[in-house]
Amino acid sequence: MFTPKYPPxxxxxxxxxxxxxxxxxxxxxxxxxxxxxxPATGRPFVQLTPGSVLTLAAGGGAxxxxxxxxxxSMLLAVAVTAASVAVCAVTVRSILKSDxx
Length: 101
Prior knowledge:
Layout: H1 50-99
């Protein structure tokens, strides 16, 4: 069931089509086409309106609040875990100390 099935040795190989190994670009395309820079207009690329500035400020403030809440909750989780481990350690130590008597 799990043994591979190989074709018999007298089976002819499957014919394959040859792939071209060299590349020749079309004759009308040159590799050295000049690239012109964009014309300078004197205007900034991004124009900020008072509404967009307000939106950016509100979005940045919201982002800071969300990231701060996540970091504070992670710190609180670490502090609760540390306190729990400390309580367990004290409890186990007192149990072991009382057994020695």
